[in-house]
Design a protein that fits this description.
Strand content: 15-25%
Oligomer: single chain
Structural class: alpha/beta
Number of strands: 20
Strand order of the largest sheet: 2-1-3-4-5-6
Number of helices: 14
Bound molecules: 5'-deoxyadenosine, iron/sulfur cluster
Distance between the termini: 44 Å
Mean pLDDT: 94
């Protein structure tokens, strides 16, 4: 709504406004003019495709890019062979970078078929000067490169790229600016990510995020609440509050607010049914938050609490600021307060200096905490981070062996944990028609487990009570519970 008002009032004969977000609405109108010209020449709207290649933050940023493209008149598509393709890159591990070059390799072929095709790159990898230099030199067909700090300027950059036949590169080192009220095109009508903060101040020694996402900045609670209220009005029932370290939310605001206090205010929003958040750093997880979660009716029983390593010595070298014992004590506190809580984690294998003994400490924590699921990663050297120059990098064959042992244990425990709710009837938020079997729909339990059950597309976005008949490893088969009258069992 707001977007229509802004762009429809825009007079392109006047110079661009200096204030944000008005300036970006001016450039959306400008892009729209270009799109109309394209349409007149080709008899169709130009198509645009946004690839998100990273985390949930990256996915949310992609929704913002899609929102701008849609407002500018592009027809959104999932096809890489579009008139405009933008890669929202990740750089947390080296293989993320390699994927980008794989895509760029394919683009030159696509460009031969469609010479007017435009390509853009943005996101975390573009904050690395060496990568931008490589693209500038070796991938000269790229039209636009920008980073994480000026993503709000996408409309302005797109307008410039539409008029230019040279590569436009605009990457900022850092920013303290947060621009509100720009459009976003949601992937799901009924759930949405909501950024509550940007950047990270933790500098874990292996991690590139603080260098590419900059220092921690929290959005004002009023802006977050207004965004969620508008989302709920628009049909959203579940929000995922996003930040690299949500537990330190609000510390740098003029009027400091804790994350637990923010959650309490979000909980008050009528019509909102589920609240999720990620990621929590164990060192900052407060008892206040545990209390708020425990008494909340909307906060989901799921906590993503990255462990990274179970060895206190390695945690120290990782600069994580907690010990094995502190992590275990925190997990015990959480399980004692919320026995039905699902705890998930991230673990890195093969951090420099990791010995067999250190690795066994990690296995020990996995056995004791019994994670509901764990993302396991092989350590990836990121240049510029302190760990990249640490001695004792672990040989590849040893890392692979440890990785496989960890994965086997994690999977065994996850399957046992998933079984916990077998036979119960629990609410499921339906997300989609099942990809393999169109007679089924797929949704999520409050604890994030997937459930498939017989039903039609009219259930999408609705919360349905489902009898969890059969646990199949990491997901459930069930049947909708129609007020006590059970439907026949699923196939
Ligand atoms: N190598 C491997 N995994 C990493 N992560 C972050 N940096 C690296 C790295 N250099 C993992 C951490 C983090 C998750 C998002 O990615 O486990 O929690
Ligand atoms: Fe990276 Fe650590 Fe910040 Fe997470 S908390 S983004 S792992 S530096």
């Amino acid at each position: 709504m707001q977007m229509e008002n802004h762009t429809d009032r825009t007079d392109l004969n006047l110079p661009a406004p200096l204030r944000e977000p008005e300036r970006q609405y001016y450039f959306i109108a400008k892009c729209r003019q270009w799109v109309q010209k394209f349409e007149a020449e080709h008899g169709r709207r130009p198509t645009a495709c946004v690839f998100n290649m990273g985390c949930q933050m990256n996915a949310r940023d992609s929704e913002k890019l899609r929102g701008i493209l849609e407002a500018a008149g592009y027809a959104l598509s999932d096809d890489e062979a579009s008139d405009f393709v933008i890669y929202n890159t990740c750089t947390v591990r080296e293989n993320a970078n390699q994927k980008v070059y794989g895509h760029l390799g394919r683009i030159s072929g696509l460009k031969k078929k469609n010479p007017q095709m435009m390509t853009a790159l943005c996101g975390c990898m573009m904050q690395e000067p060496e990568e931008v230099e490589k693209i500038r030199k070796s991938y000269r067909f790229v039209n636009l490169v920008f980073g994480t700090h000026n993503i709000y300027k996408f409309a302005e950059l797109l307008a410039a790229a539409q008029e230019s036949d040279r590569m436009i590169i605009d990457v900022w080192k850092d920013t303290d600016q947060i621009v509100e009220d720009l459009p976003a095109e949601r992937t799901y009508s009924f759930k949405s990510g909501v950024n509550i903060m940007f950047g990270c101040n933790n500098f874990c020694s292996y991690c590139i995020v603080p260098y590419v996402r900059g220092r921690e900045r929290s959005r004002r609670p009023e802006d977050i609440l207004a965004e969620i209220r508008a989302l709920v009005k628009d049909g959203v029932r579940e929000v995922m509050l996003l930040g690299q370290n949500v537990n330190s939310y609000g510390k740098n605001l003029e009027e400091p607010v804790t994350f637990a206090q923010l959650l309490q205010r979000v909980e008050q929003i009528g019509g909102l049914e589920r609240i999720r958040f990620m990621t929590s750093h164990p060192k900052d997880l407060s008892d206040e938050l545990i209390e708020v979660m425990k008494h909340s009716e909307k906060i989901c029983r799921h906590l993503h609490l990255p462990l990274q390593s179970g060895s206190t010595a390695i945690l120290k070298r990782m600069n994580r600021k907690y010990t094995k014992e502190q992590y275990l004590a925190l997990a015990d506190r959480l399980r004692a307060q919320m026995p039905d809580l699902s705890i998930t984690t991230d673990i890195i294998v093969g951090f420099p200096g990791e010995t067999e003994e250190d690795f066994r400490e990690t296995l020990d924590v996995v056995r004791r905490v019994r994670f509901d699921s764990a993302f396991t990663f092989i350590y990836s050297k990121r240049s510029g981070t302190p760990a990249a120059v640490m001695e004792d990098q672990v040989p590849e064959n040893i890392v692979k062996d440890r990785f496989n042992r960890l994965l086997a244990l994690v999977q065994e425990i996850s399957q046992e944990m998933a079984k916990r709710v077998e036979g119960q009837t629990l609410p499921v938020l339906v997300e989609s028609v099942n990809e393999q079997d169109a007679a089924l729909v797929t949704g999520r339990l409050n604890n994030n487990l997937l459930v498939h059950f017989p039903g039609g597309p009219e259930l999408i976005g609705r919360i349905v009570n489902v009898h969890l008949t059969e646990c199949r490893g990491f997901y459930y088969l069930g049947t909708a519970d129609c007020g006590g009258r059970r439907q026949p069992d699923s196939p």
